[in-house]
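S.,

Sequence below, as promised.
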Amino acid sequence: MSDKTKRVVGFTLGCFDLFHIGHINLLRNARALCDTLIVGVCSDEYMLNNKREPIYALNDRMEILKACKYCDVVVPEDTLEKVELYNKYKFDILFVGSDWYGDERYIVWEKQLKEIGVSVVYLPYTNEVSSSKIIQKIAQMRQIH
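The prediction came back faster than expected:
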């Protein structure tokens, strides 16, 4: 296959719990910049150890993403290590929300990925929406009613 016909593979990773417009924006923007978008979904164990207990189990979160037209491949994942992910999926572009821009880990990962020819693209973060904020809003509404 010549360079002119090479398909560009993108990768992004997230928890994708309580699927919302911010997730859709990230996936839509990422898919517009590649031919195939692989979406890694953080395992339940990862969420328990690093964020909170997931509302939806991993299999449910994966099924929701599989139904989204912007996701070509959906895979379970339990690592954040970007070079390890590259070695598994051989992507050309890593898509990340702009809220991670400047994060120390991403500075290191960007350098490592650049050395192997992978670009890191920061996509606009959708302000004022996150699964954690949705959970907080529901809790507040329950207190009011």
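Residues 97 and 123 are 5 Å apart (CA to CA).

Coffee later?
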